[in-house]
Each structure stands twice: as C-alpha cells, then as structure tokens.
Amino acid sequence: MSSRTVIRNGLVITASDEIHADVLIEDGRVVALAATGTPAAESWTAEKTIDATGKYVIPGGVDAHTHMELPFGGTFASDTFETGTRAAAWGGTTTIVDFAVQSVGHSLREGLDAWNAKADGNCTIDYAFHMIVSDVNQETLKEMDLLVQEGVTSFKQFMAYPGVFYSDDGQILRAMQRSAENGGLIMMHAENGIAIDVLVEQALARGETDPRFHGEVRKALLEAEATHRAIKLAQVAGAPLYVVHVSAQEAVAEIARARDEGLNVFGETCPQYLFLSTDNLAEPDFEGSKYVCSTPLRPKEHQAALWRGLRTNDLQVVSTDHCPFCFVGQKELGRGDFSKIPNGLPGVENRMDLLHQAVVDGHISRRRWIEIACATPARMFGLYPKKGTIAPGADADIVIYDPHAEQVMSVETHHMNVDYSAYEGKRVTGQVETVLSRGEPVITEREFTGRAGHGVYTPRSTCQYLL
Asked: Is residue 281 within 8 Å of 297, Cβ to Cβ?
C-alpha cells in the first residue's frame, strides 16, 4: 500500500531556490515539485493534503553535532536519544549526527556498538554517528578504514581535555594520514588543552573559582593556536579538516587563511557563540555555570566575525554541540571550582528558530539559513541529497514553518530534558508548525505525533566537498 501526501501553497526554500510550489510525497520520499496552481500540481491526488498557505516549506534541519547521553565529568548529558531526538523534532531538525566515543584502552568498534545500543529503537528522527578517537594505535587506524566502509565517515579528535579525550600531535598526524587514504574527515576540537590546564591551575590557586573564569582561562589565542596547528598537521598529512564549534575571531582568521590557500579546511560554529557571550558566564549566584561549554563563550565583539564568516563561507555549518546538563545536581558539581562544571549547553531545539531570527535581523538570507542548517551539513557528512533538500528522490524530511509566529524561548515551553534554557526570555519571530520525517508527521500543528523508534540509523558516504 503506497501512501501519498501533498503539501500545497507554501514557499519552498532550499539552499539554491525559493519557489511557490506544491510538493508530492509518496512512500516517505519526495516524488515531485510543481509550481502552485499549474496543471501538473492540480492533477495530483493524495490521501492527505497539508495546506502551507503563508508558510515556508523547508528541508528538515541536519544537526551534525550532538551529544546525547554523553558521559562527562562524572555525570551524563541529561538528554537521552529518546528525549533529545523528540526535542530536535520540535525544533524542526529531522536528522542528528551524534558522537560515539572510543574509551582509552578500548576499540572503536566497542564504542560504536555501545552508542548503537543507546540509540536503537529510541529515536524519533533519523540519526547517524561520528566516531570520537581517543586512543590512536595501529589497531585503531585499521578500524578507521572499516568504519568508513560501513558509513561512519568522520572521526573527531581533541587537542583539549588531557587525560580524557586528548590526542598529541603525533597521534593526530597518524589519524589524519589514515583519513587522507580512506576518505574520512577529521573533526577537530581545537584548543591547546595542555596550556589551558596550566592556566586553570593558576586561576584556582589565586582563588578565581567562579564560572566566568572558565572563559578567561580558555583563551581565544589558545583556540587560534590549536586551529593553526591542526591546519598545518592536516596539510602535512594531505587530509581534509573540519574544525568544530569555532568561537573566536582569531580562529576564524586561521580558517579563512587556509581556505584562501585552497586547502580542504572547513569550520562550524554554534548558536551559543552567535547569540550569547561572556556576559552570560558572569551572571551572579553561580547562574553563569549554565553557560559553561568548550570552546567557551567569547566577548560580544567576536560575534561580528562569526556572522561575517558565515556570510563569506569561511564558516559553512551551524550545529548545536547539544550537550545538556541540569543546573541542579550537575552544573552544581562545580560550585567552588569552575573546572568541575560539566561542559555543555542545551540547544538542539533552538537552532532553526535562532537562525531564522538571524534572517529577520538581516545577518543571513533565507537560502543561506537552509544552506548552513540543512544542505551543507548533509553534504559535509555524506547524507546529501537523501537529507538536506527538497527534491525528487530525497527523503520527505520536511518542515512547515510559520515565519510570522512569535515565541518566547523558555524552560517552561521547551522539550529538552534540562532544567533551564540558555535563551530564557528571548523573543524570536518564526516557529515550527508541522514536521515530517520520511513522510510521517512527527509534529502536527504544534502537537507531537511521532514515536520513539521511528528514527532509523543512516549510514553516510564520504564528504562531498573535497577538492
């Protein structure tokens, strides 16, 4: 039994086009688009019709950087794959790429199997995995080849967090050399963690324990230095590089310089760096702990460089780095010692709306909104054109978006499993109305109609941007 749905009268926006068109969906995929009112569109019949008059019809968001159930700092990220993917759907995101973790002394396979077990049968929307490589050795390098063949085509390394995820330059170079051969993409957390640990120790010795010092010790220059070093190591290896959660204007400059030289270097930023700042870290009564993440929030003047990078395509993707920890009982672990505050912010539900607000504010165009939130992450991580666009053959991951609705972001109304909103009280224009995942309605006119287990694991091809 085939099922057909038609979406009528909306403005279809992709990374390349804006057109008043109707969309025909059959068996979970987009079958055709036709200009609204034309004989072709009028001839379509379907069991279900969605009227999108006055609304945008956009591809479901692709959030290429989430951490559901991540163990960190003696606790776990508070969103499970069930709660986190449900919240993502509420925010108009229909695919996440989460991070499976290799623990030191264990194989990549063990880590990937563990994350598959966490996610399997629990996700409302489709999902894929990157692999965090914490222990580079000959066996790990061989496993990287196998994972690429299986559709896990990106590997994250850390220049930060000595003793946890940290890799030294030699380990990074070996992994990059391997990815140059197997087609994988190295994702880098670029901060000089060895130097940062010295500054943390010195700050605590001076009695500087409040959350704001988290931002002061993780200096922008140490993000820029690590970004530069990662770029040079990738250049030596002949490998592509994707720098995650870029927050500092100096780091943007390093990426821009590399791209001007024709290198396969890419950059991602996150809504928290575009909309929040060190002012939040300095909030009194330990409230600043809610905003502790790494890379850290920067002074407001860095925001202009990030927006400019998004406009000039020196930064290509906006992901969330969604890694929520509750204020009560989790962030509070760092009272009296900022270095013990679990690092991470909630945001998987807020990204599409915040970026639409950026359209309203004149920072980016509508098509650029879709490009940085849907199409480019799908292309970057081998999901396009199955994900990230509305075109014949694509999965019917589609959002009906009301560009005129106004909302106030709040813990009272969000669906993430965390006891605060990083954007509490922020007024934004634009709201998700209906969300289809592979043609199935998971949000229907602001009601949740999805189910855990609908989302399926999605293997990926290699990065589609490499020269």
From this structure: yes
